[in-house]
Please model this.
Amino acid sequence: MVNPFTIPYRENGSFKSKFIAILIFGLFIFLFLYFFKPFGISLLKPLSQLFLSFGFGLITFFILFVYNFLIEPVVIRNKWSLGKNILWDILVTSSIGLANFFYVHIVFPQEFSYKYLLFFIWTALLVGSIPVTIKYFITFNRKYKIALKEAAIPDEIISWEAEVILRAGNQKNEYKFNPRDIVYLCSNDNYVTIVTIKDDLQNKTTIRGTLKAAESELRKNSRFFRCHKCYIVNLDFVERVTGHNQNMKIRLSPSGFEIPVSRSKADLVNKKSKKS
Model:
């Protein structure tokens, strides 16, 4: 039986989507505390209830912003699992409780108490468990839908031309290649470099033109894939894919050269590379 806590887990998303998520999280804390008034908030004056609840929501937003955009990119690497992510969420939520404890001490000065500190951490874990649980349900539901879509994609029909002429938009400067020998193409301003290999010898040819034009000329060869705005790769030379969706790279054989993968193409690269 597979241990569910060892299942690979990674929450992907753009800066915008993550920012909106933590904004909603902070708003939830504010509204929950203001309207339900737990933990003695109802004993305060109406204006104090509003400002105290808003402060808790703001602290939640700030702590989540720091963890998501400053700490997480450094700490969370490869081989991240569901179990590690749950512990990570407990750490983040406990930090929110700790920050709330000092916030209340500033607003209502009193003697330091470990019992009171633990109460704030426990309260943060209790209240925070609601949006965190909702987040896990949404994440797993999204991953499940993506998996269903990928499973429904028919197997790729591989096609090759015997010869391809690359002009990259410039008819005065054309070169003929066997497409199976092309390892990858990369663009640099107004030039395109075609890297080929034959009899274990690697060769580079640079022509004037655009990568978009070269991509169009290669379109009948199904194993070429535009993985990045500056790179087209021959999937037959993919040795392995490294990194996660936010920092993915393709390692090519036999040179071991690594090329970057655009975030929007990461899932497709993973799928296509498994067929290579």
Observations:
- The longest helix spans residues 114-152.
- Residues 164-273 form a domain with the OB fold (Dihydrolipoamide Acetyltransferase, E2P) fold (CATH 2.40.50.1020).
- Strands lie at 164-166, 175-177, 182-188, 191-198, 201-208, 224-228, 231-234, 238-242, 249-252, 258-260.
- The chain is about 50% helix and 20% strand.
